[in-house]
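Homework help board

Subject: predicted structure for assignment chain

Our instructor gave us this sequence and asked us to write out the predicted structure in token form, then describe one feature. I got the tokens but I'm not sure how to describe them. Can anyone check?
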Amino acid sequence: MTTTNRYTKTNETLYPGESMKVSAENGAGGNTRSNEVLRSEDVIFSYSQEKNSRRDQAGIGPLDFTLRQGEITALIGASGCGKSTTLKLLAGILRPKSGHVWYAGTDIACSLETKRAKLRRTKFAFVFQDYMLIDSLTVAENVTLPMSLDKKLYDMNVMRRALAYVGLDEGLANAHVSALSGGQRQRVAIARALMMRADVLFADEPTGNLDPKARDETLSAIDAAMKSGLKTCLLVTHDPQVAARADRVFFMRDGRIDKEFLAMSAADVEALLLGK
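My token output:
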């Protein structure tokens, strides 16, 4: 991806002195290659597991999915095929009926909810279509929120660098996020991922509410984050222009991964989605 001049161009982590390399022990789990950050094995999910679910779909899986070091992976498919549910399974928001989700040598599918919740505060970051920010807080307070919740000290200079890395002026630090545009809000969420030293960014339709200019700025911010400490990103989208910016593209149909591609053009993604 190409970043604009407003983004800090760097291949160094946000925190000085930290290595950008991933070791085997930080990989997905047993019998894994060191470039695997997170991996699912034979994951099956039934919508009947959800409380008050009215969905009568067959469910998800078996799902075998790998997120690799240094890659942005796009997950595409028709509405209702299970993309967002797959993201929630990989992120530990939902627990599968069976199967494994490996991260850092641990099967998080079997972990207690308290441990999975801690992962979502410390190692997994999220960008959703509806922004997932707290409007009553400032930009700085939203970026540092995970550390505040865990009562951890943080460096405001690092916070300012995180904003710069995603193309936001540090003068916005004291502004309330309710005053920001949609694209700026998404970049605040990406800056938060950098600030908390997340390994994985889960982005569910992050550009769905944005115009083309804001969409491209958000994607450039994700790219900048990948160069500055983030290990991997799962990008759920229905937009061919967004999927075309990914390193790998998975096409989902009826709750299963139907096809996998290396980088695709927007035209090829659109043809795939249209069934051509």
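Reply (TA_rk): Your tokens look well-formed. For the description, you could write something like this. The first strand starts at residue 36 and ends at 45. That's the kind of observation they're looking for.
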